Amino acid sequence: MKELNGVIAACPPSGIRRFFDIAAEMDDVISLGVGEPDFVTPWRVREAGIYALENGFTTYTSNAGLLQLRELICADLASRYGADYVPDGECLITTGVSEGLDLALRVLLNPGDEVIVPEPCYVAYEPCVAFAGGVPVRVPTRWEDGFAVDAEVVAAAITPRTKAILIGSPANPTGAVQPRAALEALVRLAEQHDLYLVSDEIYDRLTYSGGHTCLGTLPGARERTVLLGGFSKAHAMTGWRVGWICAPRPVAELCVRVHQYTMLCAPHVSQLAAVEALSGPDDAVQSMVADYDRRRRVFVKGLREIGLDCPEPGGAFYAFPSIRRSGLDSETFAEQLLRTERVAVVPGSVFGPSGEGHVRCSYATALPLLEEALVRIDRFLGSL
């Protein structure tokens, strides 16, 4: 048989899934590994989906998505951050942010173009760059600096083949929120070298200390920035698969072109549920964010009390403690913790070289389980 696609064949399976597979075969496991809200989608949003089904809204929508939803997204971005995007031509509804990332990279990149990816980063970033024909170029960040992206380090990685910088803030896996000054420095760098910026802002509402900086609103950024967002995290709508792209018209129109030949449109029912999520009261989101913040403070304090240095996560719902005092590498630490104490975490190494010496812990988990996990981790540390 002829060879299959070499780029895809060379891509390793997700480093996260292996630990989930082990945990699935065990009893009494406390999982701090899933990057998913533990809340159910708010009832009024579910009810809108039910109503849509009952009334037969089961057809395709336009390729770009329901205009009403695009109008609400653009209005929300304008209200929160002062962003200025036109619903008809600069906004596209995608099947989750994952598809949005794939579309953006396919539109921006020609074969061999390089994309700078600060790491530790979400596990899909580098494979998606490669699948789009690009070359991911890692640049490190340091936990001692709060995982802030250093523009000088990025500048040193730029070559004539560099096309874009891909960044997530608030970040998975670190919970880091990029300082406004760091983002402004990246915009200046992009202007200097004529680069695109791809900004994954799926966790924008989950910011606990200070406000979120929308990259596309910074001076000089709009014409070269692709904003990615969605409903999975703040609205607890992971399974509904609704995301969005806001970008300059030439980029957005080509994203629609790829989208119409592959996904066609996001699910009609899900889009109508998302309409309700944005048009109704915001109290459910505020309540969930407040609960995450309470868990964040308890869990990070607990990690520090049992002797694990942990940077303060300013956003998302992840803690990224250092496990260097254990003397174990991150994969060994995660595997032994799971097998001996039934606590599932994700090795930091799967998120890039800068993640080694850390593990990712999701605090999108009920507070009593977080407290029990701390007891078990403390006991595990004591056994080493």
Automatic annotation (TrEMBL):
Aminotransferase class I/classII large domain ranges (all copies): 28-376
Entry cofactors: pyridoxal 5'-phosphate
UniProt keyword Ion transport, yes or no: no
Protein's recorded name: Aminotransferase
EC annotation from Swiss-Prot or TrEMBL: 2.6.1.-
PROSITE patterns tied to this protein: AA_TRANSFER_CLASS_1
Keywords assigned: Aminotransferase, Pyridoxal phosphate, Transferase
Keyword Nucleotide-binding: no
Lineage: Bacteria, Bacillati, Actinomycetota, Actinomycetes, Pseudonocardiales
Entries under SUPFAM superfamilies matching the protein: PLP-dependent transferases
Entry-linked PANTHER family: ASPARTATE AMINOTRANSFERASE (PTHR46383), ASPARTATE AMINOTRANSFERASE-RELATED (PTHR46383:SF3)
A Pfam match: Aminotran_1_2
Similarity comment: family membership: Belongs to the class-I pyridoxal-phosphate-dependent aminotransferase family.
